[in-house]
Amino acid sequence: MARATIHDVARTAQVSLATVDRVLNNRGGVAAKSVKKVHDAVARTGYVKDQFAANLSRGNGYRFVFLLPAGQSAFVRKLIAEIARESDLNRKDRVHIDIRSSKTFDPVSQVASLRQIDPETTDCAAVIVSDVPQVRAELTRLRAAGVRIVSLVADVQAEARDIYVGPNNEVAGRMAGQFMGRLIREPVGPVLVIAGSLAARDHAQRLLGFRQVLQNDFAGLTLLPVVEGFDDAARIADLVARTLDAMSPVGIYAIGAGNAGLVAALRRANSAFRPVTIAHESTDATREGLRDGLIDLVIDQDPGRAVTRAVRLMRDMADKQIVPPARGEIPLSIIIKESLS
Amino acid sequence: MARATIHDVARTAQVSLATVDRVLNNRGGVAAKSVKKVHDAVARTGYVKDQFAANLSRGNGYRFVFLLPAGQSAFVRKLIAEIARESDLNRKDRVHIDIRSSKTFDPVSQVASLRQIDPETTDCAAVIVSDVPQVRAELTRLRAAGVRIVSLVADVQAEARDIYVGPNNEVAGRMAGQFMGRLIREPVGPVLVIAGSLAARDHAQRLLGFRQVLQNDFAGLTLLPVVEGFDDAARIADLVARTLDAMSPVGIYAIGAGNAGLVAALRRANSAFRPVTIAHESTDATREGLRDGLIDLVIDQDPGRAVTRAVRLMRDMADKQIVPPARGEIPLSIIIKESLS
DNA sequence: AAAAAAATGATTGGCGTTCCTCATTTTTAG
DNA sequence: CTAAAAATGAGGAACGCCAATCATTTTTTT
After folding, report:
1. Residue A111 forms part of a structural domain
2. Domain residues for B279?
3. How far apart are CA A192 and CA A292, in angstroms?
4. Test mutation, A60, A87, A91, A92, chain B, max B CBs within 10 A
């Protein structure tokens, strides 16, 4: 049996095609009882809109925007590559993706970029932005204008977006804590934590989770004062080198980016003892660290996956499907030396 | 600028629409120089087929078959649920998925099921089957008849399928080995390995990887003779209980399913000492084990992800896109107590 | 009961391909 | 050079839905 069409729905609902159309695309001006008749008929016939025909007819496809932090960070570069890839793969389905950028950690620049997004010509935007009032206001405005908003990688307040696509960062921190405690053969001593910026919501949440586990399960480990490295490799290298000398930490947890500095410092350290080191994101620097035994474990949020998922959900949202929040969660992967191919 | 259509291609190629169509859908009967003209025009205009229009016109959408092992294993149940979910999500895009099953580990039954697949009415099949000659022959026959074949979760010989979607199982085993060595505070003593069946290609590969790492990096750990549990919980429970008493292993690596038995045996064990335990797949049993501290770490191949990926690739293949083999690889995730939400 | 408003029906053209058929032109073979 | 074969052109119908317009019927208001 072929699939049901609006004709079938009209016939079983005993109304005209025009009325079915009015109901399905809620153009209004339909009596309540007719609406019900149509909905019943939809249920009875098992009608599902043929998205191909719909898109073909409407003419326009999917117009998406990705708004990313500017800059050369390995993570962002990877993200861009993945978006380009995804864009190619979806071109045959009329998906058009526009990549834009705003200054990292700069709400003013972010707001400016958001203002550039024209609700008339974009169906959905995936953004990596700061969770601050001005930005939230702008997001809310866009949503009101009909642009669906996806917060990517770093979440914002729930009211300011339609869905969050990314990992659960508190869980990430807890995993880091657990592995830290267990990979240190004798878990007693100071642990160094380097964040990018504690104003970034993802970093703050990782720290929170990490703290929880250390306090509960590994009382022997003490947290040195958390330092902010602002994802700057040189600064981090210096910082790590000095801490290694002064405090002899048994563990290092690098929450943010700039891990080339971390690896460099560890490589130069001339002590026989090497702290258990955990970092985030699979990049050239962290993979090199893993390979050479300088980093023990990397917690990765596969950007390819996040992008694929984001595009998928954007399509579904543009198709007016209901998207449950859980569908945005992407699992974290753990990478160790052995996972490198 | 709107996207190019075949009309644009025809115009810039200076040929008729009919010729463009003949070339693009290679119906033959076109002079070599016209073919070239068309291809050039495609390149020049940046023409990409509008899959919506194509599907609408052709009438039929995507007809896929999943062939799974029968039985009540938690993994298969989850797989089925994920396929159903994916099927729902894709219905609007005219994807129709048929789920069938064959007796587990039974090539004869598998061949029979494969024979049931009608090349006329199916575009692509994703199968979990044994990698044996009869099955391979049947797969090859199907491929020749125009059915694209995806080997799911467990691979088969490359010639017998179009692409493998699943994790790299040797890497999985290596990861297990590395964590085994590092999570045991003092890595000296015997390690118990339980496989489902060493005839299953995925299990054999995991064992291979595990062995490699233990031999190279953790010489203090010795492998007890590998036992086959045939994914049977009762048998495994008995086996584990007896080994715990007799050999006091410092580690247990459960390669296959039936982990309810493993957890039960560990729970009943009344020794103060508990071996470091690593298992595969996130199921009720393994999650319970993690939560209660009986299992230390689970290596998971997210079935949802495998299914999503499989469907995506099946669509791309049905659309006659070139699909690079690497796109089938799905990463492994590591689950510990802390990852449970 | 008449007038106004609301609801519904009927119909049309178009979206970009696919898959036809039939006519015409060009090339090749004899 | 003619006949046959090959290549090309021209055009139309269909796929299922959308977005209109205009006509007609039903309901509500005065």
Report:
1. yes
2. 169-300
3. 21
4. A92
